[in-house]
């Protein structure tokens, strides 16, 4: 038996907190009866409806995916471009990405059908490190990258301090390879941060998400997360 709000969150309908509001507002039925009491428990055979639409109590699943470039971090696209779920044809659960990577950015992306888990990882206050490797135009050095360690203002809001490492520089091509570690998840954040210090991004890859890496995977491949990895992510998200 599971708490009703957790079942709704696992189905990807809403976060657990939002699910509590939905229940309190009388929008949920269990076996045809409106339920407004938080903490109500339901089993696998119970029929749960939100706004009259049945939800299916799937077992939660968690995948680590190596997103290729040229793929949308979504489950559908109105322009008929490839989306991440196109790479999971044999997965029957209704999975979706946790957060996003830009269309032209490759690297680690987590997919799940557990809404509660997804909300915890994606919440801005949770500080899970994400490591990106960028090929940039320009010669990276301490002078131009140091401001990122103090935070810079993007669109009127200061970024959290970042960590950097200069992997290589090529004076002939006027390019550098830079590793940047952040824990926020604003749209185009890494690109905008590097652009702001005069190092426009030419190519970008997310290589680490918490302790997770792409080891053993090629672009377009995925694997299931194990129980220890899931536990560690939730611990880091506290």
TrEMBL record:
Isomerase is among the record's keywords = yes
Query: For the RNA-binding S4 domain, which residue ranges apply?
Result: 2-65
Q: What class of enzyme is it?
A: isomerase
What does the UniProt keyword field contain? Isomerase, RNA-binding
Name the InterPro entries on file. PsdUridine_synth_RsuA/RluA, PsdUridine_synth_RsuA/RluB/E/F, PsdUridine_synth_RsuA/RluB_CS, RsuA_PseudoU_synthase, S4_RNA-bd
The UniProt entry, under CDD domains, shows: PseudoU_synth_RsuA_like, S4
EC number(s) per entry: 5.4.99.-
Segments spanning the bilayer are none
| Similarity section | Belongs to the pseudouridine synthase RsuA family.
Instruction: Tell me the protein's name.
Output: Pseudouridine synthase
Q: Which organism is it from?
A: Enterococcus alishanensis
